[in-house]
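Ticket reopened. Same input as before:
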Amino acid sequence: MKKNIIMFFTVIFCFCLQSTVFRTFSFGGIGPNLLIIITAVFGFMNGKKTGTLIGFFCGLLMDIFFGSVLGFYALIYMYIGFVNGMFHKIFYPEDIKLPLSLIALSDTVYGIITYFLMFLLRSKFNFPFYFMKVILPEIVYTIVITIFLYPIILVMNKRFAEEEKRSAQKFV
Amino acid sequence: MSPIVKRKREKFHLPSKYLLLILTFLCVIMMGITFTTDYLGGSLSVVTGYVIVPFQNGITTVGTWISDRAEELGELKVVLAKNKELEQQVADLTVQLTELQQEKYELNDLRELYQLDEQYAQYDKVGARIIGKDTGNWFHSFIIDKGSDDGIAVDMNVIAGGGLVGRVSSVGPNWAKVTSIIDDNSNVSGMILSTSDNLIVSGDLELMESGVIKFQQLVDSANQVAVGDKIVTSKISDKYLPGILIGYITDMKVDSNNLTKSGYLTTAVDFEHLEEVLIIKQLKQKITQ
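Engineering reply: fixed in the latest deploy. New output:
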């Protein structure tokens, strides 16, 4: 329960940070995608179910404030969270290569899907431009932020795991 | 093993793939509902408005403070203050100039025809602060700290520094979303101030970097429109009040159909450094049948 509440506030906190502080510190109008980091990280740390729910929640927040149709981003983020959850089995906290590559991949997929559905369908065909000017910078910025953010989430997750173990021992 | 552990294992457990399926259906249904009606947006925006907006308000205050300090390191404080003062003056003068020009052209030939005695300086306006910007990198909308509690409604025009910023596209009790005119899916019906020729101004992500947006479908058979001319919102727009300055033509060429012209314009508003905006509380008159 406590874990869920803290996760809820992490999402809200990241959403607020992303829409305020990171917009002021954006380079050439491009900011990092904190919500993808949160969705992916909780996905492969806690499994498919958590990933799906966190993704749904992150996307829904984006939909309510900035989307044109409710449920669009929720759907994309949810599937990203679910797929990341599949990697829960091969995830080891000590290894940072898997998280980094998964987050980079998630952000790429997110960017390409957004391009296809929001731009290509409105007959904007200049994919190389959008890739070089929007998708790629976003990935790089997101990865840089991940390097700082990941250890914090890792420590948080470790604390959760310890607490769960302790409460389980109390019952037995 | 104790019985408590056993009972835990018997607890109902929803497999993740079913959860995914259920939420997918939920999303599709929500998309359908919001696409056709306006029902869901209202209730959800009220709830989230009270959870998110206070956070954003606080963080923006801190964030602006930090970025202000960072700026001061680079530039001298005095220069900054002077610059702000001058910018304010320029904005004021731009408004005055547009008003005067508008007035002149009206006096010349339009007053009797249209009886346009209202300029946007006389509209009832309310100021608001930007507290959040679009979290994605694809579109350029932002959130302001005033909502329906302050009398803001959807489709109200938003201006800043003497030029058009955009319009309110959705509204919660204490927040509102503003879609800017440089947003990739925004189109504004405009006209050339001097000749009253109509045209369409549309935002474009590809041009964002060069600081211009594009206009098209300008019919200029008399060939009187020149680079540097002012573009204002047109009288036939169904969302925007007439005569609000949009920007200045920077480049223009004749289309391949030899009938219309298209090109680029520089907006009157500096979207990069937008912090405060004014919302005109008057809505464009609508004809209901």
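DSSP finds seven helices and no strands in chain A. Chain A has a mean pLDDT of 88. Please confirm and we'll close it.
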